[in-house]
Write a structure and sequence with these properties.
CATH class of the domain at 148-307: Mainly Beta
CATH architecture of the domain at 148-307: Beta Barrel
Strand content: 15-25%
Distance between the termini: 93 Å
Largest sheet: 5 strands, antiparallel
Helix content: 25-40%
Number of helices: 6
Order of helices and strands: HHHHEEEHEEEEEEEHEEEEE
Radius of gyration: 40 Å
Shape: elongated
Length: 308
């Protein structure tokens, strides 16, 4: 019904009936406005809920990306020898928060009790504290970069091989690495290398690991091997090497720690970059390990395999 028609219809009605009709129309319009208002609120709530879900998902993705970036940064810093410092735990700070929410009455009672106790005690003069002597810290030398130069790799010769009395998978080796007496080395090569193949054999020995007991026998070094899931091969030094000669890697200064600190994880940082290449040469970051003037350290058959 058009507005003009409604207006002409109202003119033909008595005044009281016309007024009643206007009131009814006003109620209908008010109800319509309320319904539209409710629909608008419902649509707004749906939009807000949907947008909130989208933002939460975006936040989750960004958080995961940030965490991955942090891990990558820490990994790169460790490779560059940058020391990692852990963030102090905030547990103590959190534990003190509930104490601050105690009611005012409890605090007042505590203060009154403390005051009553203090009045019964004799007031003693406080002793003057002597100023603490501050020791000047000497500037520490810069930490060397963590690379293959920190490993004490030497040519050595196996002088004796025995089975470990308490471990079927271990050999107990006596190895001459150019020192006054041979070192004792426990090696898990029983399943991979026959005993006769180790006797009188020249090997590459990692000499600055911290000694560790293995089933009651202290192992003082580690025989370096090329390793795959199916096979383990003892690395072979160049022909003509003598026990005690040092192993080098071009481009990396050889400055081994006397004994590597296990907490600094030096070997664990270097090990992922030790591997053989397609020429069977043992390498660090693709650079072959060598004995100067003698030649390269080689595996027998394993190419592109981890060295450990």
């Amino acid at each position: 019904m058009s507005i003009a028609y409604k207006f002409s219809f109202l003119l033909t009605m008595p005044a009281k009936a016309a007024l009643e009709c206007i009131k009814q129309n006003a109620k209908v319009m008010e109800r319509t406005v309320q319904e539209l208002h409710a629909e608008l609120n419902a649509l707004t709530d749906q939009y807000v809920s949907l947008r909130e879900k989208q933002l939460r998902e975006e936040n989750r993705i960004l958080t995961a990306a940030v965490e991955e970036a942090k891990k990558q940064l820490i990994r790169l810093e460790c490779q560059q020898g940058i020391k990692q410092i852990s963030i102090p735990n905030q547990t103590l700070l959190v534990a003190t928060i509930p104490l601050q929410s105690a009611s005012t009455n409890d605090v007042n009672k505590t203060n009154l009790s403390q005051t009553a106790t203090d009045t019964t005690k004799e007031v003693k003069p406080k002793k003057e504290k002597k100023p603490k002597e501050t020791k000047q810290k000497l500037p520490s030398s810069e930490e060397p970069s963590v690379d293959v130069g920190r490993l004490d790799l030497r040519i050595a010769k196996v002088e004796d091989v025995q089975k470990h009395p308490d471990a079927d998978s271990l050999y107990v080796l006596k190895i001459n690495c150019g020192e006054d007496k041979p070192r004792t080395v426990c090696s898990g090569l029983v399943k991979h290398v026959p005993m006769d193949d180790l006797k009188n054999r020249s090997v590459v020995l990692l000499c600055n690991l911290k000694p560790v007991k293995m089933r009651g026998i202290t192992s003082e070094a580690m025989v370096m091997c090329a390793s795959s899931p199916e096979l383990v091969e003892v690395l072979s030094p160049p022909i003509g090497c003598e026990a005690g000669e040092t192993v080098h890697c071009e481009g990396f200064v050889r400055s081994p720690d006397p004994v590597m600190n296990p907490k600094k994880k030096i070997f664990e940082t270097v090990a992922p970059d030790l591997a053989t290449n397609d020429l069977l040469q043992a390498c660090y970051k693709g650079v072959p390990l060598n004995v100067p003037g003698k030649g390269f350290i080689l595996a027998s058959t394993l190419k592109s395999c981890a060295v450990k």
